[in-house]
Design a protein that fits this description.
The chain has 360 residues and is of the alpha/beta class. The chain is 34% helix and 28% strand. The chain contains twelve helices and 15 strands. Strand 9 and strand 10 form a beta hairpin. The structure holds adenosine-5'-diphosphate and magnesium ion. Magnesium ion (MG) binds next to helix 2.
């Protein structure tokens, strides 16, 4: 192909969604990953019971360089299991996965060189060492040259904001959760890996730390072209940082796309939201008897109960729903009609399997 543009550089200039299913620049490929946990539970003095959990039931996805992909799913969906397989901490029972072109089973050592990992329950830092000393320790383990390591550590302590928090030279055991997470991100970046695997990196953090980490993740992908897998069960958060979302539930990929794409895959259903002082007996059943879907009520910060009713044309059912409430002696304090949110997508795809067998 004399002088012609290579296929790779051709695709690079196309919009991202055109790349779908192409193998151009795949940073991570997972194909039909299966993982089953078998544990023995004590059931009395001399008996034990075997418990089988199908954590992953054949999940497949691809992630490109420069992309932050959210693995979103409720607790127990299989997010951590996926991260552990990609980071070679756990072997899949079947299926295959590769990271930066290396097979996670056959080339585990090479995979470890190209990833930075952050687990939600961080282990391995030394309480009696400072943040800086911890990073130096891990850098030496990785075989980094002393001068380069020192420069890298200074740079990273500044990058994650530990320097400005006065944390660089404080003992790790005195760190707050947010500082621990910042240090874990710094450690993940020590060798400047092209792929980052972050398991609920902001879980339980103070807002400034969470914001700093999200901002850095965005920048590392956009500016440095890193591929980032970011697990979370928080829709608000993934919408903020992720280019694309892979929604998993019970070990299966149930939906995939940009936040906008996911919202548009929903049936054109909108939400009628009612704020009530209380949820009277029989109200939800009556609304459901109209053939409408009603979510479990939640409570707003002001103490009012929030009832969400899904409908194609909420305007048309509004009167009936309000009457159902007032006839039970409850006034509707607030009422609004909302377009689908990512949360609706989440609920739609994670509940439909249990509700109606997955047809729709
Ligand atoms: N070491 C383990 N032994 C037995 N079951 C496990 C183990 N780790 C995870 N599981 C089970 O596998 C399923 C998926 O877990 P996990 O990958 O941690 O989900 P998530 O990170 O999405 O919350 C859950 O049902 C969980 O209880
Ligand atoms: Mg998890």
């Amino acid at each position: 192909m004399d002088g012609m543009l290579s296929l790779d550089s051709f695709y690079e200039h196309r919009p991202v969604n055109v790349l779908e299913r192409e193998t151009v620049r795949d940073a991570i490929v997972a194909e039909k990953l299966v993982k089953r946990y078998i544990t023995k539970k004590r059931a009395g003095l001399f008996r034990s019971r075997t418990e089988v959990v199908d954590a992953l039931k054949g999940i497949s996805f691809r992630i490109r360089a420069g992309e932050v992909v959210g693995l979103l799913g409720p607790n127990g969906a299989g997010k951590t299991t996926t991260i552990k397989i990609l980071s070679t901490l756990l072997l899949p029972d079947s299926g295959r996965a590769s990271v930066w072109g290396y097979d996670v089973v056959r080339e585990a050592q090479k995979v470890r060189r190209v990833i930075g990992i952050m687990l939600s329950v961080e282990k391995g830092f030394y309480g009696r060492l400072t943040g800086r000393e911890n990073l130096i320790y891990f850098g030496s383990l990785y075989g980094m040259e002393a001068g380069e390591l020192k420069r890298r550590v200074d740079y990273l302590l500044d990058l994650v904001g530990l320097e400005e928090l006065g944390g660089s030279d404080r003992l790790y055991e005195e760190y707050s959760l947010g500082m621990k997470a910042r240090l874990a991100l710094a450690r993940a970046l020590l060798r400047d890996p092209p792929v980052l695997l972050l398991d609920e990196p902001t879980l339980g953090l103070d807002p400034p730390s969470a914001r700093r980490i999200r901002g850095l993740v965005r920048e590392l992908a956009t500016r440095d072209g890193k591929a980032v897998v970011y697990t979370s069960h928080n829709m608000f958060e993934v919408e903020l940082v992720c280019d694309r979302i892979i929604l998993i539930n019970k070990g299966e990929v149930v939906a995939e796309g940009t936040p906008e794409e996911l919202k548009s895959t929903l049936p054109k259903v909108r939400t009628l939201e009612l704020h009530l002082e209380r949820i009277p007996e029989g109200l939800i059943d009556e609304i459901r008897s109209y053939g409408l879907e009603v979510r479990e009520p939640t409570q707003a910060p002001d103490g009012l109960f929030v009832l969400r009713v899904l409908a194609r044309r909420p305007e048309e059912i509004l009167d009936d729903v309000v009457r159902a409430a007032t006839s039970r002696g409850v006034d509707v304090a607030r009422l609004r009609i909302e377009e689908p949110t990512l949360e609706d997508v989440f609920v739609y795809f994670t509940e439909r399997g249990t509700r109606d067998g997955g047809s729709g």
